[in-house]
Amino acid sequence: MYTIMSKLPPKEFARTNVLSSKLRCTRSVCPRLSFNGVEVCKCNKTSLHQHTGRFIHEVNAILQKHHGMVIETLEVRIDFVHSILIHHLNNWVSFALSARTKNLTLDLKPAKWLSWNYIDKYVFPFELLDNERISHLQQMQLSFVTLKPSSQYRGFPNLKKLHLQLVHASAKDIGHVLSHCCNLEWLCIDRCNLNDELVVNGPLTHLFYLRIDRCSLTKVEFHAVNLATFVYDGSFLPVGLRHSLKLQSANIKLDEGVFHHVIISLLKGLPNVQNLTLRIGFLHLEKQWLRDNPLKFSRLKNLQLFMFIYGRDVENILCSVSILRSMPFIEDLEVHFTGNHWHWLADVGPRRKDFGGQYCKYDHLKNLWITGFKGARGQLEFLLHVVENAPALEVLTVDTHQRAGTEHWPKGSEPRFKEAKEMAVTSLSTIIPQTVDLHVI
């Protein structure tokens, strides 16, 4: 009964306690304590800062009742807008350590956190940590705090999951913290303005999930041999995950980048990835074929490529096909085109014959899906080049509709899907084998 009750959310826990006196006895031994300022003070997020004193009183009263008990989870969600919170937050962290808490959450971001300077963040009390009490922590979420590990810091020996959000710290300090989390399995660093290289020298042999979002980094390098998933959203930068031999999935979203520079960087940093999703917001295409590049994605089988084509780059669409030369074992290819309306049926740019004798075969490619096909020469040449050099192709889908992002049609203009569709059907009819399942939408 104790275990079942401990898994209920607070509202259901309270309702269930009404059923019988036998169930009510579990109220005093609940191992999960979650304090949300909005719920505790019964107010909205924007006015929560006016109720800080009440929140402190309520939390202290409940923690006093649980003194000496083992608390599996402690969550505190309150706007950090008053310095009066510092003393109490330190006490609550100390309580969590004494209560052998496994899961600790400090979510302190204000409703209008963009207007608050770093100086207003709560400094996490590393001085309260000791080897015995810290050993129980397995999961931790820190939001709107400052990390300044002391010289006595020896790491979180059993921490498996760590989420850092809006944290103020130097990249060196975060790297130092992570280097001493030897059992870390899951890591997310979200909107931490680091402005530096994040290099973690210590081996994270248990890390299987890594996500980095909007952190203003200049370099990312981890020694994580068992990493399975990598997610990145931000500006273009070197990524060093060469030791991640078991990398199954990488989802890369870049604000801007020159296409062939991005590809070379990924070849150097993620050579062992199996499934790759690549988005570049402001994509710059140059006439670079990467003909003599010795680097290869040695295990890549699935590629999702989002091509945001703008301006004169429509002339260089075909150049993007050079990425396939570095993927000898590609099986599934998705290319989602997005661009300006006047790119439809554009008859500009090189043709596939310009490759000369540099053609390569995609012997393992079975499925090809292209969306946003508007009949531009580069799109058509890209399509025909791949089909002509994919002897194992089984399914081909060409979709003239926009499937990625939102395209804004000028007033009075209608998408000319019909012409693009007819062009695809006519061009493919003479080269596609009868064994291929063809769909033109």
Summary of the model, kept short:
This is At1g61320/AtMIF1 LRR domain-containing protein. The chain has 441 residues and is an alpha/beta fold.
Explained architecture:
The chain is of the alpha/beta class. The protein has eleven helices and 20 strands. It has helices at 2-6, 10-17, 21-24, 37-41, 52-65, 85-98, 131-134, 171-179, 259-269, 377-388, 417-428; strands at 32-36, 73-77, 103-107, 122-123, 139-143, 145-146, 161-165, 186-190, 197-200, 209-213, 219-222, 229-234, 239-240, 249-258, 275-284, 302-309, 332-339, 367-371, 395-399, 437-440. A 15-stranded parallel beta sheet has the order 1-2-3-5-7-8-10-12-14-15-16-17-18-19-20. A three-stranded parallel beta sheet has the order 9-11-13. A two-stranded parallel sheet has the order 4-6. Helix 8 (171-179) links the parallel strand 7 (161-165) and strand 8 (186-190). Helix 5 runs parallel beside helix 6. The longest helix has 14 residues, at 52-65. The radius of gyration is 27 Å and the shape is elongated.
